[in-house]
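Record minuted for everyone:
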Amino acid sequence: MTDIKEMHKQPPYGMIAILFIGAFVAILNETLLNVALPSIMTEFEVSPTTVQWLTNGYMLVNGILIPASAFLIQRFTNRKLFLTAMTLFTLGTLIAAISPTFSILLLARLIQAAGSAVMMPLLMNVMLTAFPIEKRGTAMGTFGLVMIVAPAIGPTLSGWIVEHFDWRTLFYVVFPIAVISLLIGVFKLKNITPQRGIKLDVLSIILSSLGFGGLLYGFSSAGDSEMGWSHPAVYMTLIVGVISIVALILRQLRMEDPMLEFRIFRYPMFALSSAISVVLAMALFSGMILIPLYVQTVRGFTPFEAGLLMLPGALVMGIMSPITGRLFDKFGARTLTLVGLTITGVTTYFFTQLDLEITITSLMVIFALRSFGMSMVMMPVMTNGLNQLPMHQNPHGTAMNNTLQQVSGAIGSALLITVMNSRTNSEAESLAEEAMKNIDPSQMPTGAAAEQMQTEIMNEAMLHGINFSFFISLLIIGLAFILALFIRRVGTDGKIITKSRAE
């Protein structure tokens, strides 16, 4: 095991780069398939509900395994974990590329997810171990490239590939990168994280799987137009999820060596950072969901064009993430977060005013500015919270953060899509009634003209729904701003820096 003080003097940049590549390709893969779902649906002759399991199943496996990552990171060496995770991911990618049936493709996606679920918490934990508190901002800023940019460029990259090649090309592109990352890991990866001989509590795994899996499936399905909140599969899984989470928390609080340590919420800055991250994940998913809906459904652009519109925002976040990390080391999280949320709030307001005339260039600029604001918030808030935890609690902190982001992202998506659908339906009724009043009964449109009028009404109604959803997103960002006012900087000793300490 590498000495911590020596490692802090000379962090293992080469090893972190290996983990970085592995995590990047694993997270990129999560959003890579979304654009290709219609093509897969056609080839295997499956319904939209069935094909959606390629993304839902991936998300559910992540939701089940990420909470268990705290146990895995403490029990096994970082080398063994990385090689196992990367082997599973590579194997799943190969099977997906050559899958002859939909069932085998789905199995391959689940194998991929089993590998990728551990990658993010593992990379975060290695970086927290490898860098002292005063340098973590820069390190975690670089880590932000994986967390933010990979999911953002996924739709653009997959849109271009699917438009020019077969959907299997998506997996053929990922496979060699995964193999190279695995091979480098075999020869270059060393162990730096401390291990403890803790035992796995099977009941905790079951409760965690039912709890987080139930919440993720329930909220994701609630946003599905074919199901909705009143569907038994939605509310029953949500009820099971909530009961299981409560049982999980009670069990973990009674255990000496819990699978997931909920007592870390006793640290005020970690608890605050978690609350802000949850609120932000709910609000910020709006851009990823609502903008493609507006561009493709209301304005009629292709998926690739929609992805291209979001690409400058992803590049801005990529460029800013390391810079934000350095600014965090110098100024702390509070100033960065308040400035970032202000920029995010103002640009979100512009998205509440969308119409049928706004140019794609204007949308691209507003989205890039919104991404600029977002880049100043997520990693500083998360890093400030993790800095307050003792080193032996880092695996639990990273597992908790990643789990909460998964769940809150699903909640935010379901909430915003529900709000959009509700507003769209009410606006469609109002617009239809108004249109009927202005039409002479003897000149009532029929055939193609009637369809054209209905399409125009639905597009305008959806536009109102999207604008209103962005308004709800703006309110959520306002809540995050209020919470950010209470952020305090954490010193190198893990204690909150008060005015008296600063003096």
Q: What stands out?
A: The chain has three domains: 1-197, 200-256, 261-436+450-503. Residues 200-256 form one domain.
